Write the structure tokens for this entry.
Amino acid sequence: MNSKIFLLFLAICKLAYGMPKNIEQIREMYQKPSSVWEKPNVDTGVDYKELSPLPLKASFPKYNPYSKEKAKLGKKLFYDPLLSLSKKLSCASCHKKEFGFADNVKLSLGHNDQKGTRNTPSITMSAFGKEKFWDGRAKNLEDQALFPIANPKEMALPLKDLLRRLNVDKFYKKEFQTAFQTSPITLKQIADALATYERTLLPKRNAFDKFLLGEKNALSDKEVWGLHLFRTKAKCMNCHYGTAFSDGKFHNLGLTYYKRKYQDLGRYEVSRDIKDIGTFKTPSLRGVIKSPPYMHNGLFPNLSGVLNAYNAGMFHPKPEDTNDALFPKTSPLLHKLFLNNEELKALEAFLKTL
């Protein structure tokens, strides 16, 4: 008798916490224009843009328009260890194709096996957004391209030496002349070529994109439920929205390690603005399953860990000294979500479709 009561209890729990009974209605809703979707659950003041499918091709800025020659040259530079002091490292040493052009370790190894200070971000969505790096220190992709080359912990090659190497290399002299019709080779040309190639790394449309574009069964019921949770109960669109699944802004998740060994003050180290203490740029969620570990410090080895932390409202450390004006303040956009295990699994299933 006790076993029957227990099974009945499990059945009731499944009805209470399992798949919504109206999942087909939810599926049908997302086959309609986004203007008639249920409004997302976001905090007051969040100026979100609705989720939308990827374009077939990346867009390129007027100040650095696309050309086949420039993209080809950028790819050659990206994979060439000549751009490092040791001639052993390339951009691809940390941005590995098999990991979504990110890395699969907390901190990548650079010059003389020095560890970096932050987790290597994916660059597949480089065509989107403005500021680059976790702290936004580069104003655009072209500005970003030269930082790792000169960084003593990464490729460690002084930029004057980079120019000298390329300008005496017969292959590169020819390829730069073809791409830019001028000589000698300049830093701007190097940055433009690398940025052009990186913009071509835009992912192909995935199951989620196909679903929004009319393939009704491209997502399973569980994945559709996860999409709906993403927009509603899980409040993911407070920060992850639009085509890129990122607001392009900077937020504090409570992972600053203030006055401790691994302290990282994020954007504040660039801006020196108190409101930026402990903030980091919102990454795109496109291709997220390919690029663990997660967060600026690679703290979480898998998606379930990330989701559990968000479900708990992330981290809200309290200052020992209440007069400490520099103590990092966790974003008010982070709340306890009270998602149950089935909902967390559905949310993770949806994220894996991206």
In short: The longest helix spans residues 2-17. The beta strands are 250-251, 280-281.
